Each structure stands twice: as structure tokens, then as C-alpha cells.
Amino acid sequence: MSLESTQGRARRRLDDPAAMRAFAHPVRLELHELLMRMGTMTAAEAAREVGISQALASYHLRQLAKYGFAVQAEARDERERPWKVTETAQDWNGSGTDPEQSAARSLLEQVMAERALSRLIDWQQRRADEPEEWRPAGGIGNAYLYTTPEEFAEISSAIWGLLEPLMARGADPSSRPPGARPVLLTQICVPLRPTESGD
């Protein structure tokens, strides 16, 4: 595990298979996202929001903490301490040479893709009811690129650079301009198989 400090916020590179498998749990991903959106929440508040028992929310929050995705925040009172995320961005771009790490990475990517697809279907069902200025924002775009691995790394770095100031707003609600709302941006990049002609 490594943390890269970016504009006062940390981006975590996941390389521990156990942490990747722990994170690849739908309830934990939902709780983690909820903490990012709300800043801090108690287990009871998170349980109500997600629709699970407080005991189950507490268990999954402790698992997030065990693998470094969440920590307990400063107590609001003497009864229950809230939780907060340790960082708002993760990546797991490893070489994939270790079989256990590769399997954990594939699992996490699959769960993330399924979650993103579910969000897309939900968006399609409610898009017509959204404010007109938001309707073009959601959906899928396709781009076919011819790049070298080095060029693609530069593209990824440039995308992170554009997104980092916007992601930093997750940790600081006061920095969000009027009209800002949370947006899920899922990036799926698939190097395609060469054709028989080599193109």
C-alpha cells in the first residue's frame, strides 16, 4: 500500500491482495462512498442510509478500518464516534505478475464494473426527470486509441490531474460551488487483441 499526497488529499495505490478483496464488497463500497459524500457518519446514521442493521454497518466499517480505508473521526459527543474515509481516490494499476494480486485486482474491477453498470441503468431510468442541464452529463462514451504503453500512462496521468481538484471537494464540502453534485466517473480501459493483420 502506498499513499500519494495530492493537493492536500491522498490517493491510495492498492497493491495488497487482502485489501483489494476486502474493498471489493458491495456494502463496504457503498459505505465508503457514503462517507466520502457526507464527510463523517456514525454507524447508526450509515445503517439507516444504506438500509442495513447498525451491527452490520459497524462490522463493515471496522473491516474498512482494518484495511486502511476508513478511520474513526473526532467524537461529536460521548455516545458514538463517527467514521471518515482515509482518502477519496484509489488505483490498483499493477503489473499483475503476482497471481494472487492479479486475481484480487480482477475481482475488485469486476465488482466496480457491475456497480457502475447498475448506476448507469438507474440513471437511464431517471434521466428524463432530471434538470435539463444535467441530462447530457450521464452516459457512455467510446474512444478507440492507438497508443504505446508510455503514451497511455501519460494520458492516465493527465486525466488524474484534471480530476484531482474536483475530487478534493469530497473532503471539503465548503469548497463545492452552488449546483455541484456527486458524479461517478468510472474509467474502463481495455487493450484490444491485435487483428490477424497486426493492426
UniProtKB/TrEMBL annotation:
Residue span(s) of domain HTH arsR-type: 18-113
SUPFAM superfamilies: Winged helix' DNA-binding domain (SSF46785)
Pfam family, one: HTH_20
InterPro entries: ArsR-like_HTH, HTH_ArsR_DNA-bd_dom, WH-like_DNA-bd_sf, WH_DNA-bd_sf
Name the record gives this protein: ArsR/SmtB family transcription factor
Organism, scientific name: Nonomuraea purpurea
UniProt lineage: Bacteria, Bacillati, Actinomycetota, Actinomycetes, Streptosporangiales
